[in-house]
Amino acid sequence: MHLIKLMEVKRKLNAEVVLLIQRVENPRKYGVVGVEEIKDNI
Q1: pTM higher than 0.70 for the full model?
Q2: Run means of pLDDT, 10 residues per run, the chain, 42 residues
Q3: Is 25 among the domain residues?
Q4: Taking the CB of residue 25, how many other CB atoms lie within 10 A of it?
């Protein structure tokens, strides 16, 4: 389901790149991604 929504958003926004990210309790192990939401959960 997440991948379908991801591809729909990519197509709708004509994006060159999309990232699927997940919040984790301790990001030190994985890194941090700074983002700005375009709309709810996107």
Answers
A1: no
A2: 88 89 89 84 73
A3: yes
A4: 5
